[in-house]
Specification:
mainly alpha, MetI-like fold, transmembrane helix, MetI-like_sf, MetI-like, ABC transporter permease, single chain, 86% helix
Length: 255
């Protein structure tokens, strides 16, 4: 069996085994769907809400919040990481404040965001951006600082400016670490979007979970969780494809 095919079949087989065990355990124990619905009940709820069109606007809202927050927080984190890597004085001055901003629980700030930005898209995007900011900033800073000093010195000896050294040496060399930070940021962006919807949103999969909890509709809650998991997996695979595409020219240059 080819390694690629095997790597795809094994996770699928494991998923089938886990779902089968879950289904049998629920049926044998006679658990109510209110406590723990069987996978078949979750699948019916997911299919019904997708076929009726109920879930699609909520999926679209969550994806939009995730992507907007990732774009804002990711760009800010990348810019801050580059700035701190290029200036030790700036790092000493700003790094403590950046760390403090991250150790404060974002969920605790959610009521303030609702107060400042109102209900809807804005507070969720702000929370998502704050959550995405730190992974990209830290990975960018670390990756740029770990570039081979001998190569940096060679660029300086050849008369390259600071900007040329950054664009032609440090960023390409640090690209794998930066993209790893992007993968982490994307996963956290989805978490931030859903958590933000718990507090101040009427649309989105987080709002669906809260509504399902109020209606005591546990299958719908699990269906929303399944949709969130699918979005996360698709987003993560998209970042892997982007990483392979961006790193391919550098891999081809290797002997």
């Amino acid at each position: 069996m080819k390694p690629v095919l095997q790597s795809r079949l094994l996770p699928a087989a494991l998923l089938i085994v886990l779902l089968t065990a879950w289904e049998l355990a629920v049926r044998q124990a006679g658990l109510s769907a209110l406590v723990l619905p069987a996978p078949s009940a979750v699948a019916r709820a997911l299919w019904t809400t997708l076929a009726s069109g109920y879930l699609w606007p909520h999926i679209g809202a969550t994806v939009a919040e995730m992507l907007l927050g990732l774009a804002l927080g990711g760009l800010a984190g990348l810019a801050m990481g580059i700035a701190l890597a290029e200036s030790a004085a700036l790092e000493r001055m700003l790094k403590p404040y950046v760390i403090v901003s991250q150790v404060v629980p974002k969920l605790a700030l959610a009521p303030l965001f609702v107060l400042w930005f109102g209900f809807g898209l804005a507070p969720t995007v702000v929370m998502t951006a704050l959550i995405c900011f730190f992974p990209l900033m830290e990975n960018t800073l670390t990756s740029l600082r770990q570039v081979d000093p001998d190569r940096v010195q060679l660029f300086r000896m050849l008369g390259a400016s600071r900007g040329q050294t950054l664009l032609r040496l440090k960023l390409p060399a640090g690209l794998p670490g930066i993209l790893a930070g992007l993968r982490v940021a994307l996963v956290l962006a989805l978490v931030g979007a859903v958590v933000g919807e718990f507090i101040g949103a009427s649309r989105g999969l987080g709002a669906v979970i809260i509504a399902a909890q109020g209606m005591m509709d546990t299958p719908l809650m699990f269906a929303a969780l399944a949709a969130i998991a699918a979005i996360g997996l698709l987003g993560y695979q998209a970042t892997l494809l982007l990483e392979r595409r961006l790193l391919r020219p550098y891999a081809e240059q290797q002997p």
